[in-house]
Amino acid sequence: MTALTLLIAILVLTVEISLPVNADQLAWNIHAPPANWASIRDRWQIAHAVRSAAALLALAVLSADWTTRAAGRADPDIASTDRELSAPPTN
């Protein structure tokens, strides 16, 4: 659930900040940028840093989950011991 939340946050940041800034910059004149170009750039860079951190964290969460699940499936002795402990005794 954490990874999904992070991925949704990445999507929201992309749609709300990155894409509009990218679209606005297409119309800028390179020799005469808008007066507030530095604040727009800073806003984009902060959003990009947050998106990148969220993506790395989501990857870490998904990797940890996958590793934990794979480790549980890889050791059949653990699974058989669990079944033996939970099975009712046979006479």
Fold and architecture overview:
The protein has 91 residues and is mostly helical. Helix content is 81%, strand content 0%. Helix 1 (2-26) packs antiparallel against helix 2. It is rod-shaped.
Looking at the chains present, what oligomeric state does this protein adopt?
single chain
DSSP strand count: 0
Shape: rod-shaped
- Along the chain, the helix and strand elements come as HHH
Rounded to an integer, what's the Rg over CA atoms? 24 Å
Classify the beta-strand content into a percent band.
under 5%
Average of pLDDT = 87
Low-pLDDT runs of 5+ residues are none
CA distance, first residue to last residue: 45 Å
SS-derived structural category: mainly alpha
Share of helix, binned: over 70%
Tally of individual helices: 3
Main sheet makeup: none
Features of this protein?
81% helix; 3 helices; mainly alpha; single chain; rod-shaped; 91 residues
Briefly say what this structure is:
This protein is mostly helical and 91 residues long. It has 3 helices and no strands.
Please write out the topology:
Blueprint (H helix, E strand, L loop, with lengths): L1 H25 L10 H38 L1 H11 L5
Helix pairs in contact: 1-2
